[in-house]
């Protein structure tokens, strides 16, 4: 039987290093690929590539560097900036997984004769569906739910049945390389945001323009420092004259640079409208559970698909649902589809 080649997406971190190591131990021919996704000049890429070089030397594997900075800028970065300026909350990792990691990187793997593309994501697949990882605290299925069903037969996620502690133990077998890769801290939430997202937006627009805080009736009740500093559910950083109870952002209005706030109950959402559907099943009307943001428990709902639009009727109200985030549909641990949130109805 011929040995199958697996391309491993290597970031220089422990998860993808252990992924490469595990697959090699299983008998696959392993090659690595590092994606240059942005033009950070603070030594970020050099440091990551230094770690990858050590691991590649230890495993005696070949690795490639693929510059996708232009694609990333168009598909992920511009979308990220535009979304905040339009008053929505983007999810750049979801876009990156769809277009870059399991789009362009998968094409690269195939063009280099690999039968599979592996990453250190904590998620399971059977080639048709994604499933939540066994370690629920690390599960990344939410971020992968926009990936095309056509890509699934080529994916491998060897970490999916392990806990992070197990991975650290496996990593210790990488000897020389191990010490260095554990020096690399866990990936930041968003790889191109060094501290806070507003620093990125400020490079493209003046977002520090004070504006009015409105109540649900449209009355002016306070002041804020610029709408792009806020996301739905935020309760600090603006004034509400004479408020006794906490107030939360319920709406961002870029057109007139106002934000609407209300008491906690005003955050309750019963219906969610979505678009940009990506489904792994064919049904158009079904009941399931849905996650309306990462790190939340799934809620039961009825889903109705009409063309590329989706109406989600929640069985229980959910607090603070932000347009721009992803709604991910689950049948227990199985991901059955997803769509981007366009608007909400309370
Ligand atoms: N720049 C990159 N080039 C190639 N593959 C990448 C890159 N960044 C991430 N990946 C792949 O996607 C997986 C998940 O990325 P994520 O940013 O969530 O990293 P992580 O869980 O901290 O993993 P790691 O410890 O490997 O950095 C990584 O394990 C790796 O396989």
Automatic annotation (TrEMBL):
GO terms for molecular function: ATP binding; tRNA binding; tRNA-uridine 2-sulfurtransferase activity. Residues 138-140, 293-294 are annotated as: Interaction with tRNA. SUPFAM superfamilies: Adenine nucleotide alpha hydrolases-like (SSF52402). It is found in: Cytoplasm. It comes from the Bacteria. Its EC number is 2.8.1.13. ATP binds at residues 9-16, 35, 120. The active site is at residues 96, 191. One of its GO terms (biological process) is tRNA wobble position uridine thiolation. CDD domains: MnmA_TRMU-like. It is an enzyme of class 2 (transferase). The keyword Ribonucleoprotein does not apply. It catalyses: S-sulfanyl-L-cysteinyl-[protein] + uridine(34) in tRNA + AH2 + ATP = 2-thiouridine(34) in tRNA + L-cysteinyl-[protein] + A + AMP + diphosphate + H(+). GO terms for cellular component: cytoplasm. Keywords: ATP-binding, Cytoplasm, Disulfide bond, Nucleotide-binding, RNA-binding, Transferase, tRNA processing, tRNA-binding. The record marks 121, 325 as: Interaction with tRNA. Catalyzes the 2-thiolation of uridine at the wobble position (U34) of tRNA, leading to the formation of s(2)U34. NCBIfam families: PRK00143.1, trmU. Belongs to the MnmA/TRMU family. PANTHER family: MITOCHONDRIAL TRNA-SPECIFIC 2-THIOURIDYLASE 1, TRNA 5-METHYLAMINOMETHYL-2-THIOURIDYLATE -METHYLTRANSFERASE. This is tRNA-specific 2-thiouridylase MnmA. It comes from Malaciobacter pacificus. The gene is mnmA1.
